[in-house]
Records
---
Amino acid sequence: MTALATKVRLLILVALSAITLSGCATSGNPKDPIEGFNRAMFAFNEGLDTLVIKPVATGYDAALPAPIQLGVSNFFGNISDLFVGVNNLLQGKVSDGLGDFGRVAINSTIGLLGVFDLASEMGIEKHNEDFGQTFGRWGVGDGAYVVLPVFGPRTVRDTFGLVLDVKTDPVGNMDHVPTRNAASALRLINDRANALSADRVIDEAALDKYSYIRGAYLQRRRNLIYDGQAPRDFDED
Amino acid sequence: MKFIVGLITFFVLSVAALAQEVAPDALIRSVTDEVLEIVRTDKDLKSGNTRKALELVDTRVLPHFNFTRMTQLALGREWRKASPAQQKLLTDEFRELLVRTYSKALTEYKNQTIAYKPFSLKSGEVDVKVRTEIRQPSGGKPIELDYYLEKKGNDWKVYDIEVGGISLVMNYRDTFASEVSSGGIDGLVKTLQAKNRAGDTAATKK
C-alpha cells in the first residue's frame, strides 16, 4: 500500500509539473480554454486508472460471473433511478418521472432491493438524467470544458450539476461510514468494469485520446439533454 | 395449384427485387444480421482474432460505406487545403483506422442484439438516418446506434455512425484540425499512418 501511495504521489507531482510546463497548449477548441490544465488533469486521471482502478476492475470482471455483475449494476441503478425521477420532474417530463418512481417501487420490492430490473422487463423504460442535464434543459449554457480529478470530463455547468448529484446521492450519504465507503468503492469498480470493453475500442480509435474523449463527452451530453433527438450540425466548411 | 402459386410468387419477388433498389433500413438490417451471424458462430473472432474480423468487415461491410465523404466530414474546412492526391491518401488511411476500430468493436461482441426502430422513406429523399439500438443481453439501458446514409446512384452508402449520440466521424474533427495546424496535411497523413502501423504490429503479436 505504501508503494502505491508513493506512486500516486509521484503521479500528482508529474501532473503538477505538466501544468506549469505546458502553460496553455491549446489546439484552439473554443470549448476548451484551459486545455493545458485539462490535459495535465487527464494524464493524472489516466495514471490513477492504470495504476489502481483499471487493474481492480479487470480482476473484478474476471472473477465475478456476468449475472452477478448485472445484479450489482441493477442494485446501484435502482438507487440512482430515484433522482433520475426527480430530475425528470424538474424538467417537466412528468410521465417519465412517474415512470422512474414506479421503477423504484417495483424493483425495490419484487426486484429484491433492485438486484433484478423487473421494471425494464415490464416495459417501463430506464432513463438517463442528472442535475447537469436538468440545468441544460432549463437553458443554462454548458460553459467551458473541464477535466476534474477522479470524476473526469465535465463542463462548468455539469460540474455544478455534479455537486448536486453528489449531495443527493443516497449511497454517498449513508450514515454508516464503513458501509458507505464499501458501497461507493463497489459502485466505482463495477462502473469501471462495465466500461472496459468500450475503453479497448477507444484505444484502437483515438489518435489523441484526450481530444477523442473531449469530443465524445461534449457530443454525448448534448445528445442526452435532447434525449436522443439532438439536431445535427454538419457544417461541412 | 400450389406449384403455380409458388412460381408466381417467385417471379413477382424477383421482379420486385430487380426493379427496386434496397431501401436504406433494409440494407442496414441485412448487413447487420449477416455480420452478427458470423460473429456469433465464429470461434476465432470470439477469442479476439482481429485478422478475421478485418476480413469480414472488408468483404461484407465496406462496400456500403462512402469513405471519401467520411474523410471530408472529419476534416471539415481543412479538406479543401488538401490536393486530390492528399485527399486520396487521407481517405485510405482514415478508412483503415475506421475499419480497425469497427473490427475491434466486433471482437468485443457479447451476445447483444440489435433492435430496429420504425423507418419510413419519403419519396425523393437522398439523405436519411436509420435508427437502431443495441440491447444488452444482461439488461441495462440500450445504446442508440444510428446510421446516416446518402443515396449514390441506385445505392445507399453510410457516411456516419452515431453511438449514443457520439458521431464516430465528427469526433475526429478536433484532432484532425490540430494536426493540420501543427504539421499541415502531410503531418496528419503521417500521424494516421503511424497509428495504423502501430495497430498492425499489435495485431500480428496476437
---
Amino acid sequence: MNSRTSNGPTPEPREAAPTLSVRGLTKVYGPRATMLRRNAHRLTAVDAVDLDIAPGTTLGLVGESGAGKSTVGRLVLRLIEPDAGKIDLLGTDIAGLSRGELRRMRAKATMIFQDPYTSLDPRMPIKDSVVEPLLVHGGHSRSERYEKALAMVRRVGLGDAHMERFPYEMSGGQLQRVAIARALITDPSFIVCDEPVAALDVSTQAQVINLLNDLQQERGISYLFISHDLRLVRLIADEVAVMRHGKLLEKGDAVRVFEEPEHEYTRELLAAIPGRSPRSRRFGGLAGCDGETGTADLRQEVA
Amino acid sequence: MTALIADTAGTDDAVMRARDLTVEVSTEHGWVTIVDGVNLTVRRNEIVGLVGESGSGKTVTSLSVMGLLPRNARITRGSVEVMGRTISTLTERQLTEVRGVQAAMIFQEPRRCLNPAFTVGDQVAESLRRHRGWSRKRALQRTVELFELVEIPQAARRVKQYPHEFSGGMCQRVMLAMALACDPMLLIADEPTTALDVTVQRQVLELIRRLQAQLGIGVLLITHDLGVVAEMCDRVSVMYAGQVVEEADADTLFHEPKHPYTSGLLQSMLEPTQRGRPLGYISGLVPPPHLFPATCRFQERCSYAVDSACRTTVELHQVSPAHSSRCARIDDLKLPGVTD
Amino acid sequence: MTAHESVGTKERRRRRSRVLRRLLRNRAAVVSMAVLAVLGLVAIFADLLAPDDPNKVALVLRLTPPSAEHWLGTDALGRDVLSRVLVATRVDLLASLQAVGIALVVGVPLGIVAGYWGGIGDSLLSRVIDALMMLPPLILAVVVVAILGPGLSNAMLAIAIVIIPSFYRVVRASTQTASSELYIESARASGCTSWRILWRHILPAVAPPLLVQASFSASVVIVAEASLSFLGLGARAPQATWGLMLKEASSNLTTSSYLIYPPAIMVAITILALSLLGDGLRDALGRQTTDGR
C-alpha cells in the first residue's frame, strides 16, 4: 500500500477544491415551539457541524449510537433536509438544487448502507439492483448497461452466476459487495459509507474494507466512512472526526487523533478498544486475582 | 469419539461439561446435524470463550447447556452436565431449578429480556421469590444488594424504576443482577456486549470479569469478537461448522494457533494501531449445515489444504495436554498468530 | 429481447413457481382453485351448458318440482331453474370482477400515494375513508342505489364504494412498511424518481397482500350482490342472478322449497372457495416474505 502514503500521515495543505465542505450543519427533530406549545421538546441531532473531505481521501466519522453520525451522512447528500448550514458537494451548493438536479447529482455522490440484507430490494435479482442507477441516470443502451453491471460485479469479486440470484440466496458479505457495485456503477466521486461492515462476520469485514480501500486507490473516490468501531476507522481513514450528542468534539489527521487525542471523550473511546492478545490486555485492573481473597466470604454472605 | 483432552483439573471443579454433544435440527432438508461432537468444560474461577462466526453452532451449544433448545432441535448424542446433573434426564421442573439456581444466562439484547410493564426490581426479585420462596420484602432487599454488586448507582432508587428508564448498558447490568440472584456457579453470556456502545462494552466486560473473580464462578462467554476474547478469556474453544476446531488457553491460542481457521480469524482481526494495510481474511463462506462435508469442514476455505490429508474426517488432535486442534496437518504447519 | 433478459425472466418464473408450489401443498387452496376454475368455465360456457332458454316463460309448467326434463325444476314463471342458475354464475362472477376492479383502480393509487408521501393528503384521505367505513355498508349501498337508480351495475358500483376502504387500508399500510425499508432509501440515494420507486419497488411489495385482500373481497361482493338483489336494489327481473333467484324462491318457500337450494348452494360454494383461496394465498405469500429476509 505504498501509494497510500502519498495522502499519508501528514497530508499536504490541499490545493484542490474539496469534495465535500460542510459549514454549520444543523438538524433539529421535534415540533417547533409555537404560541400554544412553548416548551416543545426538540432534539438537536446535529449541531453546527463543520467537515471537509479532500478528493480521494477518507474522513472517518466516529461516535456511539445516537451521536448523530448517520444523520450527518444523510444530510450531506440531502437525503434528509438540513435545518441550517451550507453544504458544498463536488463544487455545488446543494441547498439550491432542484429535485431533478439533486437526483442527477446522485450519480456522482451516493451512499452505501449498514445492512445489506435490507438495503437491496428482496424482489429484484442482483442484476437489476446493480443496473438500476445506470438506468435512472440514462445514457446507455440495454446491453451496455448489462455489460457495465457485469464488469462491476466481477470487479467487486463476484461471479457471473450471481447476476441472476436474489438477495435471499446470498450471504451478507456478498450482498454488501453487490451494494458497493451498485453504488460504483455510475462512477461516483463521493460515497457515504454508513457502518458498511457492522452487520458482517469478522472474516468478511476485512474483505469489504480491503475492497473499499482498493477502489479508492483505483478511482480516487472520497469516502465519508461512518462507524462506531475505531479499529475500522483506523484502517481506512485519512482524517477522523469524533461526534457525541450531535456535536463535533474533535477532528484531525487520523494518526494524530489516534496517537494524541485531544478530547477526553476520544481518549475514552480509544481506551475501550480491546487489545489484540491476552498478553496486552487493555482493560483496567483485570489481573484476575484481586477478587480471590474475598470470594469465600462473599459467597457465604450471599447464601 | 471421546474427549481427547484429559481432565487435568479435578472433576469437582467443573461447573459445566458437554461430552460429545451432538444436536440436530429439523429443516426442509430433514434432520440436519448443526452441532457435532462438541466437548466443552467450564470450571470454577475461569472464563471460557466460545468463538465462531454466525452459523458455527455456538449459540445452539449454549442453549443445549441451559436445556433451552427449541422444539425443532434435539440432542442425538452425548450429554451436557451442569453441576454434575445431566440436563437431558431432568424433568421440566428440575430444569427450571438448574436454570435459575445453578446456571444463568444473559443475552445480546438485554432490553428485550425485560418486561416493560414491571419495575426492574420486581423482575429481579421474582426469581428470588420463586426459587427461594422469599417474601417480597426480603427479595427486594436482596435485589438492592444485587444492584450494588453490579454497580448500578443509587440502587435503592433504581429498583423501583421501569426498563425504559435504563440505558442499554444499565439493562445488561440488571440482567446480570437477575442472573446472579440465586448464586449460580455457571454464567453463560451470549454476545453480552455486541449491541452496546464501545465505552459501555468495556464497562460491562470489566464488570463480568470482576464478578467472576469475586464470586469464583465459571463463565462461558460466547462471542465473535476476538478482541473481547483477548481481554476476557482464560481458555478458548473455536467453533467452525458445528465442530470445535481448536481449543487452548487464550495465550497459546492467540500466539501459537494450530488450526488454519483460528489463524485466519486472528489475521482478520482488526488491528487498532495499523492503517491502510490490507487485512487478512478467509475467503468463501461457512457451508449451510445440510452441506457440511464429511471431510475436514474447513478444507474448502483453507489455504493450507492438501488433497491427501484433508480429504478425510479429521479428529481433534492433541498438541499439548491443554491444546488440541482439528487439523490434519497439525504437525507440519507453522501458522501465524498475533504479533505483539 | 437479449439473451440475459430471457434468463432473468426464467429466474423470475422459477421464483413465482415456488409460491405456486407452496399454494399447491395447501389442500383447501387446491380444492377451492379447482372449484373456482369450474365456476369460471361454467360462466364462460353457460349458454352452451344451459338446457333451455333461461328467460323462456311457460306458465303451464310453473313450479314443477325437479324432474327428468327439468333437473332442478321450474320457477313461478315456468323457467328452467338449472338454466337460470348456470347463466346467473356468469352474471355474478362478472359483477364481482367489476366491483373488485373498480375498488382496485380507486383504492390502490390512493393507498400508495397516502402511504408513500403521508402528510396532509394522507390525513385528509384517511379521514374520508374512516368516515366511509363508519357508515353501515348496506345503508351506504342503499343510498348509492337510491341516487343512481337500481340495476346490477349501479349495485356493483355501490359495493365497490363499500370495499374501497379495505383496499385503501391494506395498500396504505403495506406501502408505509415498504417505504421505511432501507432499500427504498437506497433507491433514493441512487437517484431513482419517485415514480420508479413506486412502480418498481413499492408496488411489487404491496401486490401480495393486495391479492389476498382481493380474494376475500370478491367473496364479500358475492354475498352483497345476493343481499342487494334480494332487497330489490340490485339486478332486476328478468335477469338471472343468484340474489334475484333467492328472492323469487323466497316468495314460494312454503310450497316449492326446492327453488331455494340451487342459488343458495352456489353462493355458499363460491364464497367458501374464495375465502379458502385467500387463506391459502396469504400463507403461501407470507412464508415467501419470511425467507426473503
